[in-house]
Every structure is written in structure tokens, then in C-alpha cells.
Amino acid sequence: MSRRDHLGNEGHIFSATQEFSPFNVVAWHGNYVPYKYDLSKFCPINAVSFDHPDPSIFTVLTANSSIPGCAVADFVIFPPRWTVSQHTFRPPYYHRNSQNEFMGLIKGMYEAKQDNFLPGGASLHLCMTPHGPDTATFERAQQMDDSCSDQPGRISQETLAFMFETHMTPRTTAQALSSPCIDRDYYKCWASLRKHFDPAYEPLAKKQ
Ligand SMILES: [Fe+2]
């Protein structure tokens, strides 16, 4: 067994190697146990009409806080699935809230980003920061809404994204902020969004 560097945190990283796994046990004492879960077995409780139930239908694990409805942290995934909502915008909608959202892409393509969000990539939206689908995703969803909004859609079998959501504001390290991998043009994914609001448009009235 060897060990180097120091045990610091907040900007300091340590590494260690050993000849055995600490998870290789037949019993565990205490409230916390290592557990390996196959994310492909997770089943989101999907909407079949027009709304998105709360808490998130994609929550795999949650850590409750003393505040009802406000978890310390949620672990959420966005797995392959059918989307069958009617008369509504299918991709994750634009929003900002009190939660801090760190999400990443494990494989495939994330449904709300058409460009520059690759497997291994991650994004961090801190509390009250507006965010949502990029322009290409919005435009495609807008066309679907006009042409086939009642048709089922398929989120690719080859995709898997995840998110940690917490009301506690995470701190970014100096190493992260100075990383050459940061996409400093990220905000431009929304720069070309066009205004589509039409006060005379009444989709529900037309379809009834
Ligand atoms: Fe969000």
C-alpha cells in the first residue's frame, strides 16, 4: 500500500492505492453501506398528460432535510424512455429555482443540448440561475409542437445523464475554475433564441 500527497480538501487532491477494496466486506456496521446500483434498472414515473409531477420523476436517491419538500440533495438520472405528453413542450423547460444543479452526461446525447455537451462533460447551474434547452433543441421542439405534439417521442436508448440537486450552494475549486476544459462560451447556447410568443395563438381552443 502506498500513499502520497496530503489529505486536504477544497482545492487539494489526494490519491491512494491499496491491494484490496474497502467495499469487499460481508457485513457493515452503521447507517451507511456501499451499494452498487445498475442505473438501467431505474424506472421514471412518467407523465401521460401534460404535467411533470413533483418531486422529480427522475429521482433515484434523495436525502431529506428538516424542511418538507426540500431535500439536502437529490440524485437524478435522465434515462432512455418514451415521452407522451400532449399540447406541451417536451424538453426540460426553462426555469430557475433555489436549487443548485450539477449535471453530467455519461453516454449518448442529452435531450436538452444538441451541441457541445459531450459524454464526460458536466454543467453547474447555481441557485436562481436561469437555464434550459439550447436554441437547437427549442427550435426542434417548437416544430414538433406544431406538427405532432400528441405523438409519442423516444429518448434514445443510448443516452444517460445524471444530476445532483441541492439547496446548499457548492463551492468551486480554483483548479476547476482554471481548467482548460471549461466551456467559456456555454452561455452562447441560448444567445440565438427567438421570440415566439403570439398573443393570438390559442392551441387548446383550436384542438377542442
Ligand atoms: Fe435545472
From TrEMBL:
Binding site for homogentisate: 110, 131
Positions of the catalytic residues: 52 (proton acceptor)
Binding-site positions, Fe cation: 95, 101, 131
Pathway annotation from the record: Amino-acid degradation; L-phenylalanine degradation; acetoacetate and fumarate from L-phenylalanine: step 4/6
Domain of life where this protein originates: Eukaryota
GO molecular-function term, one example from the UniProt record: homogentisate 1,2-dioxygenase activity
BP GO annotations: L-phenylalanine catabolic process; L-tyrosine catabolic process
EC number: 1.13.11.5
The name this protein goes by in its record: homogentisate 1,2-dioxygenase
